[in-house]
Amino acid sequence: MEKILSLNNIIWRRNGDTILNDISFEVNKGEQWAVLGLNGAGKTSLLDIIMGYNYPTAGSASVIGTEFGRASLPDMRKRIGYVSSSLDKFHETLNRETGLNIVLSGKFSSFGIYQDIDEASKERAEKVLQDLNLSHLMDRTYNTFSQGERRRVLIGRALMGNPELLILDEPCSGLDIRAREDVLKIVNKIPEEERHLFYVTHHIEELTGSITHVLLIKDGGIVAAGPKEEVLTGTLLSETYKTPVKVYFENERPWLVIDDVEGNND
C-alpha cells in the first residue's frame, strides 16, 4: 500500500529535553488523519518534523515519497498545503492584499505577489474563491475580513497549489460556532479532491465524517493511532486529556463530555 507519510521511532530533543519520544505511525493512501492532544502535548513539534523544519534527533521519516536525508525538503514542502496560526507573523503583509492575491500567492508559496500572473492562474484562484463561497472577498483586503473569512481564505491559498497533503493546524481556533462550521464544511470536502488531510486540534467535535484515522498524543508520545472508531474511546481520550471523559457519536461526529464517575469511561 502506498504510504503518504511514515515516521519510524522518531525522537526529537531540544536543549537536552526530549520533546518527542519514539513516535511511529503511517498514513496510507486514501486515509484522512486527525491529531488530538492537549496544548503542549507535542502536536506542533510533530508538524515541524513532518514539514522538515526540525530534523529528528533519531529515527527516520518519509513524507509524500520524500525520505529525509535523501531528497530535497524544500521541494517536498511545495507539495504540501499548510494552514496554521504561525502564519499570523505575515499579518502586516496580508493586510494589504486582496482575497484574490492571497489565494494566488499560494501558487508560489509566498506572501504577496512578486511575479507576473498568467490568465490561467487568475482563473484558478477565482475558482478556488468561488468554491469556498468567498467570491465577495476577491477585491477586498485582508484587514476587512472577519476571523472566519481570514481562515477560509488561507485554506484557499493552501489549496491553490493543488497540494497532495493538506495540513491544518487548529484552523478553528478562536472562531465562533458559525465560523467554525463554515471551515469544517470545507474540511469535510477535502478528500473529494483526491488529496490527503492531516488535521490537528484538541477539540474532537471538529472531526467531521471525512476523518478516517486518529492519532492521540500525550507528553510527546503516542497514546493510540488507528481507525477513528477504535481510537476515540472514553478510556483512550481520558488518558490523552488527563481527565475522565465519555465519548458519543452524532451525525458522524464525535462529542465529548466529562465523566464524573471515574473508571466508567467507555
Describe the structure.
This protein is an alpha/beta fold and 266 residues long. It has 2 domains: 1-79 and 164-179 and 189-229, Rossmann fold, CATH 3.40.50.300; 86-162, no CATH class. 29% of the residues lie in helices and 29% in strands. The protein has 9 helices and 12 strands. The protein has helices spanning 43-50, 73-77, 91-95, 99-105, 119-131, 147-160, 177-189, 228-231, 234-241; strands at 3-14, 17-28, 33-36, 58-63, 66-67, 80-84, 165-169, 196-201, 213-218, 221-227, 245-250, 253-258. The strands form 3 sheets. It has a 6-stranded mixed beta sheet with strand order 6-7-8-3-9-10, with helices on both faces. A 4-stranded antiparallel beta sheet has the order 2-1-4-5, covered by helices on one side. The chain has a two-stranded antiparallel sheet with strand order 11-12. Strand 7 (165-169), helix 7 and strand 8 form a beta-alpha-beta unit. Helix 4 (99-105) crosses helix 5 (119-131) and helix 5 packs across helix 6. The longest helix is centred in the middle third of the chain and has 14 residues, at 147-160. It is globular. The model has no long low-confidence stretch (mean pLDDT 90).
